[in-house]
């Protein structure tokens, strides 16, 4: 497989009021503690976060970050290590294009999860390896929009184009028909490592010791914040409101230290408990809404 055979992807938002969002189910199934067992060298790019903006740190895996890494690496061969629940489809398309255009060989390693936007980013690799216990998930472009019927028609038409492009990418990679890829996307398809290889979404399995679970990889309050964001998204709360709420709870701007007199050691646990209480409340609300 050479990158020249992979189609370029449109990476422009169709409307200023369109927001692409992280799928709650992917967030729920993501284990952020899974990392590479071996250390990374200067030609490795890691994608261990949601694609696009991360509400806790202020920046997840963005095209800006990947572009800067590629400029630093130059035309050398690179390894891209992925464990991501996906996220912003437009940010993902921009990253896919950057990797697709890289002059060196691109080896992608799916250590844990490559869901949604992370799945088609993975397709930009010349070689794709996946952990036996890893997963890929593909689905139709998923977004939040606002406007009148003309705006929604415009967005729907654009999403159909995106779905067609993604299906084409998956088709070229797997050698299967575009219609078959669209059928898999329509039903939201999850594939374990061996199935992904058999279906042509990956070229081979990683060795069993390539990935490990690092309990220190994410602080409890960071995980709780992301899960809370997923719950609020499921309830239909707009992204801007979710971010404002999480930043209020955090006590500052993205990346800033929480205010107050509590020690740094106490703050993460306190925040984690606060988020856990909110998660439980939102879960009860969700269950009641379904009755």
Question: How many DSSP helices?
Answer: 10
* Global Rg: 19 Å
DSSP E strands, number: 11
CATH homologous superfamily descriptor of the largest domain = 2-enoyl-CoA Hydratase, Chain A, domain 1
- Summed over residues and divided by their number, the pLDDT gives a mean of 80
Helical content (DSSP H or I, runs of 4+): 40-55%
* Helix-and-strand structural type: alpha/beta
In angstroms, what separates the terminal alpha carbons?
Answer: 50 Å
Detailed description of the structure:
The chain is α/β, with parallel strands linked by helices. The chain has two domains: 3-213, 2-enoyl-CoA Hydratase, Chain A, domain 1 (Alpha-Beta Complex), CATH 3.90.226; 220-290, no CATH class. 44% of the residues lie in helices and 15% in strands. The protein is built from ten helices and eleven strands. It has helices at 24-29, 63-73, 89-101, 117-122, 149-174, 178-186, 193-198, 220-234, 239-250, 266-290, and strands at 19-20, 34-36, 44-47, 78-84, 106-115, 127-130, 135-138, 143-144, 189-192, 204-205, 211-213. Strand 4, helix 3 and strand 5 form a beta-alpha-beta unit. Helix 2 runs parallel beside helix 3 (89-101). It is globular, with a radius of gyration of 19 Å.
